[in-house]
Amino acid sequence: MSLNLGDPFPNFTAETTIGTIDFHQWIGDSWAILFSHPADYTPVCTTELAAVAKLVPEFAQRNVKPIALSCDSVESHRGWIEDIKAYGQLATGDPFPFPIIDDSKRELAVKLNMLDRDEIGSAGLPLTCRAVFVIDAGKKLRLSILYPATTGRNFAEILRTIDSMQLTDKRKVATPADWMPGNTCMVQPTVPEDQLATLFPAGVNSVPLPSGKRYLRKTECPK
């Protein structure tokens, strides 16, 4: 299945470490980040899930629910979670803060095009790549990234993209290169000049350019 940004994200039922879920019902009125990893009990994946576990409060502040996936069984996930907790120095007695999907039949990996043909597991089958899907409360795909198996993800960057999307959903701004929350934003090119004072009472500064075109318009980050 080919998914484009803005497409409805397909619903599915899956077995997870918290039981059977209906994905759309599990999301509810929240956003979600669905991210796959190649295999349990592997080094980079362990660092990634430990990192996400520590960032769960940050995701919660943004009304985002994380959920992981690989082609391993629920039993494998549950055993591996203890290693993740140990590596991440997480409380061993607490429940793991997000579910992990059992896709041992590779149904979701195939459906969502998450298999890495260059990464073959011990059973001789392709493993899931490091895919990231961000889905909004309307169940639409808002962001999609694929990483190679040897490259761990920067989840702080994924939080930054969520901050940008949630801001620009509400305000007629765009976020420039290396933007961080609170930094200067760019006025969207579609905003006409006669609406600037109303929409941006803090003011707008146009960057002089050789072309003479007024498309680089900066404004304070809206609250």
Flag low-confidence runs.
none
**Average pLDDT reading:** 93
| CATH-defined architecture of the largest domain | 3-Layer(aba) Sandwich
Q: What is the number of strand segments?
A: 13
Number of domains: 2
Largest sheet: 7 strands, mixed
Protein name: 1-Cys peroxiredoxin
Domain Thioredoxin: 3-167
Organism: Anopheles stephensi (Indo-Pakistan malaria mosquito)
Keywords: Antioxidant, Oxidoreductase, Peroxidase, Redox-active center
What does this structure look like?
- The protein is an alpha+beta fold and 223 residues long.
- It has two domains: 7-152, Glutaredoxin (3-Layer(aba) Sandwich); 171-219, Antioxidant, Horf6, Chain A, domain 2, CATH 3.30.1020.
- The protein is built from six helices and 13 strands.
- The protein has helices at 23-27, 43-61, 74-88, 107-111, 155-170, 196-199; strands spanning 13-16, 19-22, 31-36, 64-70, 100-102, 115-120, 126-128, 130-135, 141-147, 173-174, 185-187, 204-206, 217-219.
- The strands form three sheets. Strands 2-1-5-4-3-8-9 form a seven-stranded mixed β-sheet. Strands 10-11-13-12 form a four-stranded antiparallel β-sheet, with helices on one face.
- Helix 2 (43-61) packs across helix 3 (74-88).
- The model has no long low-confidence stretch (mean pLDDT 93).
List keywords for this structure.
about 220 residues, alpha+beta, Glutaredoxin, 2 domains, seven-stranded mixed sheet, about 30% helix
In short:
The chain is of the alpha+beta class.
Topology overview:
Blueprint: E1 13-16, E2 19-22, H1 23-27, E3 31-36, H2 43-61, E4 64-70, H3 74-88, E5 100-102, H4 107-111, E6 115-120, E7 126-128, E8 130-135, E9 141-147, H5 155-170, E10 173-174, E11 185-187, H6 196-199, E12 204-206, E13 217-219
Parallel strand pairs: 3-4, 4-5
Antiparallel strand pairs: 1-2, 1-5, 3-8, 6-7, 8-9, 10-11, 11-13, 12-13
Helix pairs in contact: 2-3
GO cellular component, one term: mitochondrion
Catalytic activity: a hydroperoxide + [protein]-dithiol = [protein]-disulfide + an alcohol + H2O
Family: Belongs to the peroxiredoxin family. Prx6 subfamily.
